[in-house]
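Long-time lurker. I teach an intro course on protein structure, and each term I like to show students one example going from raw sequence to a predicted 3D structure in token notation. This year I'd like something fresh instead of my usual example. Would anyone be willing to generate the tokens for the chain below so I can use it in lecture? Attribution to the forum is fine with me.
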Amino acid sequence: MLKESRADARETEPDEPEVQRSEISGSEVPEAEEAGERTEPGPDPAAGPAVVVPGGLLPSGVALRLALRGGVAGALMRCVLATAAAGVTFLLLVALGQALRHPHHLAAGAERLAWCAPPLAATVWLAVVSARGRAGSPAADALAAIGVGPSRLPRVLAAQVMWSCLLGSVVASGTFLRLRHALAGTAALPVAGVVTLLLVVPLTAGAVCLTALRFRLRTRPLPWGLAPAAAGLACAWWGRHAKASVPLPGGLRDMAPAVLAGWALTCAGVVACAPWLVALAGRALASWRPGPVRLLAGRALRTDARRVAAAVAWPAAVLALVPAAFRLHAGHRPGAFTLLGAAVVLGAAGCAAVASAARARTNGSATRRTLSGLGASRSVLGRVAVVRVVVVIGVAALAAAPVSWLLDGLLRLR
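-- Reply from a regular --
Happy to contribute to a lecture. Here you go:
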């Protein structure tokens, strides 16, 4: 009876995995592991339950936390972006209020909305520069630790930009509602129109940032921007004698549409040519028996042509506006909304240039440390930085010259 009960107990016990002793260490190794199959470690009970973040709520939630926390530089950039978005939204709402106040002048209302495009473009460019700088910061590595990889990072950064722009738009809408009687009269404001204009800047900035972060150009700089620049100069020269005119904001003189289109094409061509101009300047600097300073500065400009060009393009536009500003103040006094639009454009351009220059300097810190480790003195590195700055300023002045000439001719047209 005892033998039969022991046999039944052996039959009911679960089969245990057979183990073999390693011939080298003498330890017990399971057969599955010896066969080459790796066993994944199970969850640690002491670590607590695993945190699962819903994929659909991750971009907006993380973006909101990033918008509320961060360094001083990041907070300052978000404040500048929100201020620019507030200015553009206020201009859009003012255009709506003027259209409601003068319902019989639809063409004038459409022109006011059209003149909101330059501040909107400058604000969107500032948003793109801000998002690109955030993508290359250590915060991107921290986001990768919580599951935000390269495919999801553009959505998080675009959502962060939208939050900042939405904050500025809400502030602008509150200011406009307090001044609605002075700007729109007694006409009732359409809720759908106000909400649409309120979301123009956040949605546009978010969409452009998402596209710019997902589709980055990896090709070398090419001079394809010469074509629109040449076409713009020809169009402006042809339009100098045109009889048709478009009214400018702020009580300025009317301008020919061909001249305005030529100025826009020339500006676009100069901005597109900026990387190629920087790379060409770096190639010329490193040619004809260069010394250590010229060689290092030239190769650095060729390597960081696209980053440096982002800091060159907008200062070139600012330099081009200096002669026009003196001519504007000579015989005309721009209105308050014209000054607001000009302040948004110049402020966004300047902040984008400073942010791009800071980003280029941060990306070059590793190269400077490597050169220091190889024995390069601080004086050599300082001279390299000075040469780079001088060359970049020269490229900006060279790019601004044709735009400045065209804009000055535009203002002297009539």
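Some talking points for your students: Confidence is low (pLDDT under 50) at residues 1-58. The two ends are 121 Å apart (CA to CA).
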